[in-house]
Design a protein that fits this description.
The chain has nine helices and 34 strands. It is an alpha+beta fold.
Length: about 650
């Protein structure tokens, strides 16, 4: 692959994002060759016959000890020793490349791919305004550099609603937006001057209470939500609570222990201070001790980021120790839940063991009834934190700018939700006259920042086909699109679910996008189009204008050339005969490692006059097949430094060339 050249296309793509009327049921070639990898969830929750406890063992330096055997442990329930019947060491691998591109939207995680599930929760009651920038910067660094490929993360705070931001995701773009959103909510970090009567505070101790009485923080409610949200999520589960003083009633500890959730409490103020409003027998740091986590005294900035890394390191390896009790754990005593104390001991000297201190012997009240109707199946798949893989599909929400309004001259973002469904996962039924029938339910929803619906479409497709047409559809798949005129720039969440009515198989996918304001005087890019030369076989999508909108669906064979393009807006205007000076640069990544990086190349004024950036990217024949991420960066050299750069990402897959028959 050439290292420092981006040759321009001889002809611009017809339009980068053709904004059509709502369309559906589009057929187009699509083959992925990817097979689902089913794997059972390795963590079994508390049941009648088995109790399992996540246990962390460290040496005197705080390092994990991973070579222990069942005989090295003793486990006690209500003071009585128990026979260990299940024992395993579980290790979560760190990121393969800590320097992975921070903005690349990764694929949706399947349930079997989730290794750690984490809620990063900021307690407004414990984070004064002056510390907010350092805390938020550390949180962003935590997401950018320390999230592993199998991590599912949610970000929330104890004041006000977070909308779709607080939903679990593996998409770092959504997490960045959530972290930024925390500090922008009304009333966040505003403190009253007075303190509780009779309480004397030291010079480093903050006052208590908020100015905004109509929007009080609800830390207990949000922590309860976080634990309940983790209850049915796979992997090692934790809440990382940033707070300076937090009273948690015993019910919170019991709820966390029942759900198998570890709570890590980090005080970002760096002072060993106990809130005088909290009873002395229940300091907030006991949340960590009683659920098997850590209490860490930290400071905003580098120290806080290191301590967040320490949390991930602590979650990276643990023992799963199980025993079988000799009675039902779900019995009630006088109508009340039964609490059972758990104590785990390690017999090797010099080691420290941490585990939850008990569990409540009651059935799980949050278990939802199984779905019954098509709407139930679609809704369950739509809002699951991980993608259903019964039907493989890919969701690509792409956006561009509408034409300028005749009166205001302003442009609005317009989104096209593009759904690609794997044909080999669909099941036809036989009907009369030798024909075959496919019944497919499709639900696509777009959500605003506050979690309300911006647009949705629930549609059932009934396709009648001959035997040959059904076989062809199994190889090509289905493409479905929905165009939405967004009300304003900003973040949106797009979710899709499909169900085969014959087989009952379900698939889901979701994606986050943040549409820029195309009216601002700074450079902004639409989504990217990828296409292949029309005379190249096996390269994926055609470069014909009618296929120019098939963004993100193409696979490209090694040895071919990929055409790319996008719309560009907000370039600093100049007076003739002067011309704008815009350059673009292309980077290609695989698993976080850079495999191609071009030098910036000038964009012709003719293309800029059409608000277009286009180019070619040659894929060398020896490129290894697999999934890649392409980054397109544009520089407006005449703009101020803060308004000079914009970038976009898109996924592409490189496949082996199709060999012509001899």
């Amino acid at each position: 692959m050439p290292e420092n050249r981006i040759p321009m296309c001889s002809a611009a793509l017809c339009r980068i994002i053709p904004l059509l009327c709502l369309t559906s049921g589009v057929l187009a070639p699509q083959t992925s060759g990817r097979a689902p990898l089913p794997s059972p969830d390795p963590v079994i929750r508390v049941s009648v016959n088995l109790v399992q406890v996540d246990t962390v063992v460290t040496d005197a330096k705080g390092n994990h000890v991973a070579d222990l055997q069942p005989d090295d442990f003793g486990i006690f329930e209500d003071g009585k020793p128990q026979k260990i019947t299940n024992f395993s060491w579980i290790e979560v691998k760190p990121p393969a490349s800590p320097g992975a591109p921070p903005s690349h939207p990764p694929g949706n995680l399947r349930k079997d791919e989730v290794h750690r599930s984490i809620v990063l929760m900021d307690d407004d009651l414990g984070t004064p305004y002056e510390d907010l920038p350092g805390v938020m910067a550390s949180a962003r660094k935590f997401v950018a550099e320390q999230m592993a490929p199998g991590d599912l993360v949610s970000v929330t705070a104890s004041r006000g609603g977070m909308g779709f931001y607080q939903q679990f995701t593996h998409d770092k773009r959504q997490l960045y937006a959530a972290i930024d959103h925390i500090g922008q909510r009304p009333g966040f970090g505003q403190w009253v001057i007075e303190t509780p009567r009779g309480v004397k505070l030291g010079p480093d101790e903050p006052p208590f209470g908020y100015r905004d009485a109509n929007n009080p923080p609800n830390p207990i409610g949000y922590l309860t939500w976080a634990i309940q949200g983790l209850q049915d999520v796979p992997g090692r589960k934790a809440v990382v609570l940033l707070t300076h003083g937090f009273y948690a009633p015993p019910g919170i500890v019991n709820l966390a222990n029942r759900a198998g959730v570890v709570i890590y409490v980090i005080d970002p103020h760096g002072t060993d201070f106990v809130n005088p409003l909290i009873p002395s027998n229940a300091p907030y740091r006991l949340l960590a001790a009683q659920t098997g986590g850590l209490w860490i005294k930290s400071l905003a900035g580098a120290e806080l980021n290191a301590d967040l890394g320490r949390v991930l390191e602590d979650m990276s390896g643990y023992y799963l120790i199980g025993y079988q009790p000799d009675r039902s754990d779900f019995e009630l005593s006088n109508g009340q839940p039964v609490h059972h104390d758990i104590l785990v001991k390690v017999r090797r000297p010099g080691l420290t063991v941490r585990a939850r201190n008990g569990f409540m012997g009651v059935p799980n009240p949050s278990v939802k009834p199984p779905p019954k109707t098509r709407e139930d199946y679609l809704q369950q798949a739509l809002f699951s934190p991980f993608s259903a893989s019964g039907i493989r599909l890919r969701l690509d929400p792409v956006y561009g700018a509408s034409g300028p309004d005749p009166k205001t001259k302003r442009r609005l973002p317009v989104m096209r939700a593009m759904l690609s469904i794997e044909g080999g996962d669909l099941q036809f039924s036989d009907v009369d006259s030798g024909r075959r029938k496919l019944v497919l339910d499709v639900l696509v929803a777009v959500f605003n920042q506050d979690g309300t619906s911006a647009a949705s479409q629930d549609q059932q497709f009934v396709i009648s086909a001959t035997q040959d047409q059904a076989a062809q559809l199994a190889g090509t798949g289905l493409h479905w699109t929905k165009d939405v005129k967004l009300p304003k720039p900003g973040p949106y969440l797009v979710r899709a679910a499909v169900r085969d009515a014959v087989s009952g198989a379900v698939g889901s996918a979701f994606s986050f996008l943040e549409a820029p304001d195309f009216n601002k005087p700074e450079i902004a890019l639409s989504s990217i189009v990828l296409s292949g030369p029309s005379d190249t076989s096996g390269s994926g999508a055609s470069s014909a204008p009618e296929n120019a909108g098939q963004m993100g669906w193409a696979e490209f064979a090694a040895g071919t050339t990929v055409q790319f393009g996008c719309e560009v807006f907000g370039i600093k205007p100049v007076r003739p005969p002067a011309e704008p000076r815009v350059e673009m640069q292309v980077r290609l990544f695989r698993e976080g490692a850079t495999v191609f990086d071009s030098r910036p190349a000038a964009v012709s004024p003719a293309l800029l006059s059409k608000n277009l950036l286009t180019g070619n990217l040659k894929i060398e024949g020896d490129m290894e097949p697999g999934d890649y991420a392409m980054q397109l960066i544009a520089y407006d050299r005449l703009a101020s430094p803060k308004k000079q750069m914009a970038s976009q990402w898109i996924d592409l897959t490189i496949v082996k060339p199709v060999l012509a028959p001899h």
